[in-house]
Specification:
Number of helices: 9
Strand content: under 5%
Radius of gyration: 20 Å
Structural class: mainly alpha
Low-confidence stretches: none
Number of domains: 2
Distance between the termini: 67 Å
């Protein structure tokens, strides 16, 4: 019986190391040498298991969106169990979801999307799915509000939430988060005032 392959384990380690390099040095600075050093592997092992720098990026992006899709499904499930707009906001703005490294990677991918139409399409699809999840939760909480208003408010909530997330790497932003949460609550309160 043959020895089990370490290839998948190595690929995971390489992609994890690449992600850490992106957060530390940005996409341009995440060189093959730095990834090899971070993964504690010889550079030829990186090339053997993943390929050249373009292939490394493609593998990282594919894994990133696989994980993002799974997380989006979990988010939609969690949101579907909430029964009020304030519950939706409390859930979305919970600081347990802050991850400065994830924010940095997301921002680097957005910047790369400017010159990579396929990446930009993936990012837009993910963003559409995210706002659709928020919209579905708000629609369930405010069934008499006009659909166009729910759609607009969902986008506004997402914008406020992403603005808070973009500052996660600065450390303690509790006052900022509290004010942003209040702004989101004020925005969804407009749905109580509307009838379809």
């Amino acid at each position: 019986m043959g020895r089990p392959s370490l290839k998948q384990q190595r690929i995971t380690e390489i992609l994890d190391a690449y992600g850490r390099c992106i957060t530390r040095y940005g996409l341009e600075g995440a060189t093959m040498d730095r990834v090899a050093e971070e993964a504690q592997m010889a550079r030829p092992l990186i090339r053997h298991n993943v390929g050249n720098r373009d292939q490394l990026f493609a593998a990282f992006v594919a894994r990133y969106f696989d994980q993002a899709k799974a997380e989006l499904a979990q988010l939609e499930t969690a949101l579907s169990n909430l029964r009020s707009g304030p519950e939706v906001i409390a859930f979305l703005f919970d600081d347990q979801y802050d991850d400065a490294d994830s924010v940095l990677i997301f921002e680097e991918l957005i910047a790369a999307g400017k010159t990579d139409p396929d990446l930009a399409r993936h990012l837009r699809t993910w963003l559409d799915g995210f706002v659709t999840g928020i919209e579905g939760a708000l629609r369930a909480c405010y069934p008499t509000a006009p659909q166009a208003s729910v759609h607009t408010v969902a986008h506004g909530v997402m914008g406020i939430l992403f603005n808070v997330g973009s500052f996660a790497m600065l450390g303690d932003m509790e006052d900022f988060r509290t004010t942003a949460r209040s702004a989101a609550l004020t925005l969804i309160e407009t749905l109580n005032q509307q009838v379809a």
